[in-house]
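[stage:ingest] chain + small molecule (pyridoxal-5'-phosphate)
[stage:ingest] validated
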Amino acid sequence: MLEKYGHGGDLLTAAELYGGNSGGFVDFSANINPLGPPPGVLALLRDAVTAITAYPDPGHRRLKALLAEELGVGPDWITVANGAAESMALLLLAVAPRRVGIVEPCFSEYRQLAEQFGAEVLSVQGTSGKDYRASVEAISGLLEQTDLLFLGQPNNPNGVQYPLDELRFLARKAEACGTVLAVDEAFIDFIPEADRISLLPELGAYRHAVLVRSMTKFFAIPGLRLGFTAASPELAAAMSGKQVTWSVNGLALLAGEACLQSGDGYGQETRALIAAERQRLRRGLLELGCGVPPGEANFLLLRLPAPWTAAAVQERLGRRGILVRSCAMYPGLTPGHIRVAVKGGADNSRLLVELGAILQARV
Ligand SMILES: Cc1ncc(COP(=O)(O)O)c(C=O)c1O
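[stage:predict] done
[stage:export] tokens:
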């Protein structure tokens, strides 16, 4: 199985399974900005490589200041981490929840990390008629039963977003229950006018809300690892108090600073490309007979036409040098579900051609 470690983007396993060179695949299984890092960032990293001879700033002060300015919060609200994945681990360590709530289908690390840290996981599930979206009432009920709840905004793998009034309702409910509501905004930068679906502008009103963000997807640096959270200073201090000193390396800090200073042109170009290509890719997938909820993020969840299974299509695409994420193992989804990233035009066209050939061949 390609998802040997539970995730997409595993090029080494792909080479073992399908042959060839791990660098030779077109990877739709991880949702990374097809433009690559902002202009100048790779060159800066090449020039700055000697920075590895010094320890990184354990307080992440420069990056924290830039993030605080960008988000409009005080630096004491920010906790920088070695990817959003580390942010989630820090949250679990800081909150030490007995029970963690998750809303299936969702990013598999929510459950995996919660169990690694010894919590019991309770879940509610989205319904197929609603693009696998769970009702706000069900999530609210889960908040009552748990100490920490993870919610994707937009959610991976179905791309659904909760309207701001629903999020606000959940954040107020979390305050009332004393439950920490972790809103995972790892993909929010890909969404135009993200403020309309983020609690960020009103974060100051909540002591129990945490926004988890990733810099690895939007800025295309997943191998470098960088993420952060915005949360009340008390929660932020509790999280950084659990962090291993120097867990964020010096090159990641430099890259993060450069990404934030690269200007908004790159962001606008990314969002325009993703919006146009998502529509085109979705249209093509629908024409091939797939079921594809619209989504708004840089990935699409699709249901293959019967009797195709994710396993069969993933294998056939893999042998043609294309990687997709099977979603057959997500609770609530079916053996026919896969997720594909929205990439650049040429790659998306290639996916449509290769998938079309496979589905037509019926072999
Ligand atoms: C929903 C979601 N949140 C967080 C992460 C982790 O991001 P990072 O690379 O910053 O650790 C991922 C990675 O796939 C993800 O899909």
